[in-house]
Amino acid sequence: MRTGTAHRRERHGPGERDSPTSPAGDEVLDAVRALLPKIGERAGATDVNRRVPEETIRELIQTGIFRMLQPRRYGGAESDPVKFFEVIREISGVCGSTGWVVSVLGVHPWQLALFDEAAQDEVWGEDPDVLVSSSYAPVGRLTPVEGGYELSGRWRFSSGCDHASWALVGGLVVEKQGRPVDFMTLLVPRTDYVIEDVWDVIGLRGTASNDIIVERVFVPEHRAMRNYEQAQLRGPGQKVNTGPLYRMPFATVFTNAITAPVVGMAAGCYRAYVTAMRDRVRLSLGGGRFAEEQFAQVAVARAASEIDAAVLQTDHNVREVYEYAVRGERIPMELRLRVRRDQVRATQRAVEAIDSLFKTAGGNSLGRGNPIERAWRDAHAGSVHVANDVERALGMYGKGEFGLTVEDSLV
């Protein structure tokens, strides 16, 4: 099995580095599948201990999953994003928390590739396996100073931050009168922030989505990026990372990284349900095999259809966006809006599929640690992420269809 370390080297253009490259998408998928039994066995402990085990993260680093969206010049694979989401769904099917953390940490190399080259060198220059967490809410206060900004703030919900050496956080540039004048994403090293363990919730318990606290630290200009530029599909990192992957919208790549784990949870719940119920015999209501009941058969059919629809639509849309980027063509706003429409609907469909299975699984599914029960909790927790705000996304699509102007950072 190939690992995330150097196995082949690729020569790039003048001035670019000669860097070890990551395994291709199918190799990563095969390596991850080999780990799924272990990850599944640890799912209960991950949930109870409120964090993904370090052992799991180390093993997944070796598969190359965290480098799939990383630039080749820094040892990444620059994989087709559809393949990345497929791998995330596989992991999430055996452990929702692990899948969520891997998806979130795994999507950040894509965004980091848009930052100034100096920022990329700081993160990946010595170790291409460095991980980055995030909390994008613009709660940080930024004060312009010579050469950059002074940053202070407290950010919630930074999934997997204990495994990361850097963090991407949101901040507002505020003028002297206190009026916000710009919204930015800042890259800060682990030495500049404190993590406070506050994560004790009902679902996605193993994501350790704790708080990040920063107090008056200096952030150089090269580690700051305007969100407006990102929404316009621009970033200083495109000067050195010229591949099509880095010409895709943030709202396509990041929001699908939030939905893919939820869809994977639904698929895993479905497999657990069918396995558990296939030979189950009712102990009441006249007995009989559960699988012979029409309501159970209908529940399975509905759930399977919802999961399939979620996968087919999201994969189709991401693939179409990627193909536009490969051709170097402008990505139509109609497509960008459709991506968001189907992404939030995919989350809805996944949750609805799990709900239908949970309701018909009976009392046996209520036991703590049961994979159906855990998937139900995890999927509902994932569905409340801002990227899964259904009304917001569907409203944007409707505005676009009516010919109205859509201005939103998540499109």
- The CATH architecture classification of the largest domain is Up-down Bundle
End-to-end distance: 38 Å
Average predicted confidence as pLDDT? 91
* Count of discrete structural domains: 3
Strand content: 15-25%
What is the CATH superfamily classification of the largest domain?
Butyryl-CoA Dehydrogenase, subunit A, domain 3
- Overall number of strands: 9
Q: Unreliable runs, pLDDT <50, ≥5 residues? A: 1-19
Rg from alpha-carbon coordinates: 22 Å
N to C succession of SSEs: EEHHHHHHEEEEEEEHHHHHH
Largest sheet: 7 strands, mixed
Structural class by helix and strand composition: alpha+beta
Q: Give me the CATH fold name of the largest domain.
A: Butyryl-CoA Dehydrogenase, subunit A, domain 3
Query: How do the strands of the widest beta sheet line up side by side?
Result: 7-8-4-3-5-6-9
Secondary structure: helix percent: 40-55%
Instruction: Tell me the number of helical segments per DSSP (H or I, 4 or more residues long).
Output: 12
Shape: globular
Please explain how this structure is put together.
The chain has three domains: 9-124, Acyl-CoA dehydrogenase/oxidase, N-terminal domain (Butyryl-Coa Dehydrogenase, subunit A, domain 1, Orthogonal Bundle); 132-226, Butyryl-CoA Dehydrogenase, subunit A, domain 2; 248-401, Butyryl-CoA Dehydrogenase, subunit A, domain 3, CATH 1.20.140.10. 46% of the residues lie in helices and 16% in strands. It has helices spanning 25-41, 43-49, 54-63, 81-92, 96-112, 117-124, 227-231, 250-277, 294-327, 333-360, 371-383, 390-401, and strands at residues 9-10, 19-20, 132-145, 148-158, 166-174, 180-189, 194-196, 210-220, 224-226. The strands form two sheets. Strands 7-8-4-3-5-6-9 form a seven-stranded mixed β-sheet. Strands 1-2 form a two-stranded antiparallel ribbon. It starts with 8 loop residues before the first strand and ends in a 10-residue tail after the last helix.
